[in-house]
Request: fold
Amino acid sequence: MSGSLPFYQKHHRHYDRGYRSRETQSAISQYQQSSSSYSAHSKSSSKGLAATFSALDESRLSPLPKRAKPTYLAMDKENQIIGYVVPIFRGSQEYASGLSDTEEARLKESSGYMARRGLFTSGVEMERSERSEHTSRRAVMRESAERISLTKRIHENEEYHKRMNEDNLMHTPEFVIKPRSHTVWEKQCVRLHCTVSGWPEPRVVWYKNNVSIDPMSDPGKYKVESKYNVHSLEINRCDFDDTAQYRVSAMNSKGELSAFASVVVKRFKGEFEEDLPTPSQQKANSEPDGWVCEYGITFETHIVDKFDVSFGREGETMSLGCTVIIYPSLQRYKPEIEWYRDDKLLTPSKWVQTHWSGERATLTLTHLNKEDEGLYTVRVITKSGYESHSAYVFVRDSDAEVEGAPAAPLDVVCHEANKDYIIISWKQPAVDGGSPIMGYFVDRCEVGTTHWIQCNDTPVKFARFPVTGLVEGRSYSFRVRAVNKAGMSHPSRASLPAAAMDPSDRARKGTSAPWTGQIIVTEEEPSEGVVPSKPCDLTITEATRNYVVLSWKPPSEKGEGAMYYVEKCIVGTDSWQRVNTEIPVKSPRFALFDLAEGKAYMFRVRACNSAGVGEPSEHTEATTVGDKLDIPSAPGRVVPTRNTDTSIVVSWEASKNAKELVGYYIEASLAGKNVWEPCNNKPVKGTRFICHGLTTGETYVFRVRAVNAAGLSECSQESEAIEVKAAIASPAPPFGICVLECVRDSMVLAWKQPAFIGGADITGYFVDYREVNGGVPGKWHEANIKSVSERAYRVSDLKENVNYQFQVRAANMAGVGIPSIPSEVFKCEEWTIAVPGPPHDLQALEVRKTSLVLLWKPPVYQGRDEVNGYYVDIKEAEADFEAWRGVNEKACPNRYLKVSNLKEGETYVFRVRAQNKAGVSKPSEPTEPVLAVTKPGTKDMVVDVDDDGVISLIFECDSLTPDSQFIWSKNYEEMTDTSRMTIETKGGKSRAIFNNPDVEDIGIYSCLVSHTDGSSGSYTLTEEGLKELLKISHDHKFPIIPLKTELAVELQEKGKVRFWLQAEKITANGKVEYVFNDNVVSQGEKYKMNFDKNTGVIEMVMESLGDQDEGTYTFQLQDGKAKNQSSLVLIGDVFQKLKKESEFQRKEWIRKQGPHFVEYMSYEVTPECIVRLKCKVGNMKKESVALWYKDGREVQANEKLDFSEGWLHLEIAQISKKDAGVYEVIVKDDRGKDTSTLNLTDQGFKDLMNEVFRVIANSSTPLKIQSTEEGIRLYTFVNYYNDELHVTWHYKDAPISFSDRIKSGVVGEQLWLQITEPTEKDKGKYAIEFFDGKGGLQRTVELSGQAFDDAYAEFQRLKAAAIAERNRARVAGGLPDVVTIQEGKALNLTCNISGDPVPEVTWLKNEREMVSDDHYILKFESGKFASFTISQVNTADSGKYSILVKNKYGTESGEFTVSVFIPDEANPPVVKRK
Reply:
């Protein structure tokens, strides 16, 4: 069968050539199924010709032989199908071998022919032995022939309708070639490919561990291709993470099919990296102090640039990252990075992605859900130990689709997966949308599809639900939606897939790769014919008001295919009712629904199999239907505690006697507002939680709710109100102690402010000192009993030439902090050097991305002379000591300097050196590192001049704290003289007002905001800037009224003329005078004035214009001391044009009082190429009429007038030249009439037809290639074809010259180009161009490469099939079905034979070949006429005769039956013709 093709495939218009290469059993089964109806009617079997000869052999032993059942399959001696023969009466389905596609097919076809020839030769001998058959077979043969003829016509009709029914051609996807598994080494590439068939063409998707692969998510990693039903997935540079199970899914409208392949990536076990230190011989374990014996080093790990508390919203993407510094740095050494959420290790998945760049660890949450909320920890593990960092991530609910709908549930988990059901649990959301949640809907989705199905018809309130109706062995994902009276929430995140399979099957599953989801189940050999025994240990594992879950152990003897029936009984009755009557349960667990709440039930189970139903189990105890789990009680006392300036620590007492507690939700509200917002969207299990994201300075109250599967508890009592501000603590120790001056008995010390001041201002410092003799420190002594506010202090009563150490403690309102680290050892001896001491107390202000201002205090020790200048040095914070470089070449006389040209994002340190006549001092202590960046929200100081001309400087700050103050300075010295400036501060804005600005106010003004992160700004007031400000101030003191628009004129309805302007700002005291040609005009019949002081619009309206109104119009404005005016000149042509337009507008208004056209007549062409004339009318009423005219003759519109829509239409279908003309439509009633005209002649008609052609062109389908027996045809379809349409065919961008070989034409809506007998020269680009009067439109197709090869091969096949059909051997007719003849008469039959080459003719009697002799005269004349003559018939001549004609293109046969009767029967001769 593999060598030849069934007729229904050869002539099928959707036949896939790839089918010929598939030698599968499905091809044979499809053929047998398609011919089963015919075999049933004809009562014939499919055993082949061999079965026919077997029946003939049996007939020799029987006086009434059985008639062989006809068959059309040809088999060899091993009963292998080798072909088939189609009898003559099968018409269009006659057998034809055609041209084989491969050498193997030709060989098998030749084998089939030789087998049939042998069978026909052996049939001759059988025919001779059957001449003595009884004449009673005549009637049977006659009835059989008639039945076969009738069946043939029915079968042909069925086959015809099958071919006409396109749905019959559709079938599910099928993998012709499945992907195979691969094992590769790292960094190699692997390619998975498969071949898929199906109709409609399937959509193919690749999956990795059941997660769809998106090539765009990792460019260069994956490459997916699909071409000619061959689909491939290429994985570049495989690494160990690519080890997985890959699945390819093919899906169309008829179904889905998947195939699997595994990829295993092996890793080389090479030697140690050459860049690492050579491992020692000791065991490669780290010592307790972190010493790694393997490499002889200790790794030090530092985590910097840490991620902080983060806030996101559902659906967003969030990344957490930090920089990891490992010392010593070993090339290619990779630490182990682990990420945790709530102490649970995270692994890469669809929702979580991790990345390590070599120095930065990143965790990306690709699609935030509330399940992603929690405490995230990154752990960096080396052989010396690990370091970690944690921060909380909050995920807010996304906006609901319906206002007031609840938030989505979360944490959907599958429990107790069985063959018949899976229990789903989830957590209730924190936000109910403002109304109570009525319940939840559970949806399921089969893995590999995207179709979600709702599992419950009514919402369930319990956060746990068993899903039934699952298909055993399939995997499902689940999601949950909440519903309240406002609407439905967003669905939750889908659960992990769970397989509907009995747990005992999972226990017996076969081994598989850990990355795959395949489950191989091995069943025990069942016992046959054994009725199962009682199930045992029946228990109720779960009970709610909606359902009850039963569980039991299978019986010890369950026989083959054991299943279960569950029965229930209401307590107090003896009536047991079977619950699952229709479908027995397969697994030893079952969920019951539809139980009456409040009633008590007992349950029992029976096992059954093919042998019968077993005895029931012991029944359960009486169980009352209802929720066994109560909603938890409200939590106890809630106590808030200050934490930071944006967070509060909330603690509470746990709910009492709470069962199966899931956690708590915390809510916050501004005190007195009663508007509650959730602090967490994922329940927390402890009784303490830090609420982040609060507003500094606001006062909040808190409450807590407990949650379990039964629901949310009542809210706890509100906490006490608490203000959000940082908790106060004692300050950290100062640092950087240095000596500024030293004399015989005293030393001046300086130090730096602590980095952490404890949330309150430092009130002072305490200094301690101790002697150091011979390196041995003594006892600490207090240097000052009363605190000092400055960061410099003179310690007195010291001993000369004695070494001392010092320590400093800072104090605030919370107390005195711990002392600083002891300073270096300083010797108390008088300084005698000539140069000054170092400056101190360096401070960086106004830090921006490229500049900052450095301030310092002068040296305490002046040296021999006074200090006359300073030098500032700078270096990068991480640079070496040698990197110090000077900022200013010339000494700076001031104690401040602006440092510019910084590099954004770089960190710097600074120091200052003092200078006097003797020289330059030692440098000061360097500053703390300063990052050159402009912090978000930073604002610069601005200068402002108000409406009264007052000049002021303004500085704003958005990061104020309750203790913040604005400190103003001039030339960086705090201002104490209030006579020059007045300071006003309100909220986050401070204003410094110049009382009487003059040259004395020139200088640098700066403002520092205390208790912030250094918020500061400055403004330099120069002499030129002061002059400009004074000019602006003068303009404000003596203002003019600003105008948004100058005086303008416009026309209004009825042709009214409106003069108007708009002032930008004017008060209620403003006045206007209207002047025409220097004369003031006033309100009256001619002039209507209006002045809207809210908008500043001033207008004057005139009903119409006369010749006397030509001139100049002026509006004069006055508002207090501010004045302005605007004029408009209307003379000459400008005035006449305005007057004419006014008159036209008045006439238009009059026209529109009756029915009129809002839009005049135009046309449009619909996609169906119908020309629609349309116009929009207005002010119509019921009595209004519309009349259409063409060239002055009224035409009837095809539609009823509908004035409610305001449109009139006239449609012209199949437009042609006779439709050219002038179209007119009139609307009228008792109020008047209006007319609209459209000229569709000459150019107007050409433009219309071009639009029609454009629509036709746009409706054309892409050019397609079709092979015919004459050649190749290119064609396209249009929605409508018009004879006027101009179409041009192009080949290689040149018009085609048509000939007998290349023709074009139109059939209906199909435009085609026929290429007869195509050759290689016909390859190239073809195009059809539609002309539409403009650019036109082209449809192109590339007839080259594979497309041309496929089309040419199909043309050759069709051409060969046509030749074979024309030239195959045929029996044209002339033979009867049955001949009844008297014994002794002569019989002569003749039939016509056709075929090229001339066929071979063989006559058969009873399936045996005949030879011409004196009795049987067989002739074949002129290659056309075959005759059969019996010179004198006798009873032995009765039987079945047939003629077999054949040539190389095919075989055909004709049959007839001869019945010889003895004259005594007195039956006249009968010849029944076909």
Observations:
- Residues 137-164 form the longest helix (28 residues).
- The mean pLDDT is 82.
- The first strand starts at residue 73 and ends at 75.
- Residues 289 and 384 are 8 Å apart (CA to CA).
